[in-house]
Specification:
The complex is a heterodimer. By secondary structure, chain A is an all-beta fold. Chain B is mostly beta strands. Chain B is 0% helix and 53% strand. Classes of the chains: A mainly beta, B mainly beta. Chains A and B meet through β4, β5, β9 and β10 of A and β4, β5 and β10 of B.
Chain lengths: 114, 113
């Protein structure tokens, strides 16, 4: 089942902060975050694992509420280069054969204006 | 360069035809995933392979098939193509079956006319 992302779109000025949310109806093993610029491939930002482990880039932060199966991505002091579409992807805790591909949300469009 | 190589970058073909998309994963990655991205459907998971074996299937049509070879490269075969199959097809790779980030290739843009 597809995770739900909010908001659908955000317009910010450089230097402002943004929060993008992702929620799932399934118990999750992990939540991934990716950024995709128009015409390019998605780029991995961060993974949050059940149990609190995080792996990702230094300038991006995120949280994972295991009880609510919700994750939030925090973009602070936004730069023009942050523009793009942000996708969360979820791996379910219970999966067939121990592996499932990521199910992605519909994405959040982020526009940073000078 | 992400390290994941996809060929061809663009493909234009007629309805009813068959095409093969190719993917070489990043060095050291054992899992390969195929995704379809269209404007109205977003990123849809098709299939996953790990170390040569199929591990998980998503919304992959029966007209589509894939395989991963001993050198870990993968091919996605699309047959009896329809106009609705026009989309961006991404291959991604990761270190293991779960718990690691994906590295995406630059994609193959398929246009069915």
């Amino acid at each position: 089942q597809q995770p739900v992302q909010s908001p659908q779109a955000v317009i910010l000025r450089e230097g402002e902060d943004a929060v993008i949310n992702c929620s799932s109806s399934k118990a999750l093993y992990s939540v991934h975050w990716y950024r995709q610029k128009h015409g390019e491939a998605p780029v991995f930002l961060m993974i949050l694992l059940k149990g609190g482990e995080q792996k990702g880039h230094e300038k991006i932060s995120a949280s994972f509420n295991e009880k609510k199966q919700q994750s939030s991505l925090y973009l602070t002091a936004s730069q023009l280069s942050y523009s793009g579409t942000y996708f969360c992807g979820t791996e379910p805790w219970a999966s067939g054969g121990g592996a499932d591909g990521l199910t992605f949300g519909k994405g959040t469009h982020l526009i940073i204006q000078p | 360069d992400s390290g994941v190589t996809q060929t061809p970058k663009h493909l234009i073909t007629a309805t009813g035809q068959r095409v093969t998309l190719r993917c070489s994963p990043r060095s050291g990655d054992l899992s390969v995933y195929w995704y379809q991205q269209s404007l109205d459907q977003g990123l849809q998971f098709l299939i996953q392979y790990y170390n040569g074996e199929e591990r998980a299937k998503g919304n992959i049509l029966e007209r589509f098939s894939a395989q991963q070879f001993p050198d870990l490269h993968s091919e996605l075969n699309l047959s009896s193509l329809e106009l609705g199959d026009s989309a961006l097809y991404f291959c991604a790779s990761s270190v293991s079956v779960r718990g690691y980030g994906y590295t995406f290739g630059s994609g193959t843009r398929l246009t069915v006319v």
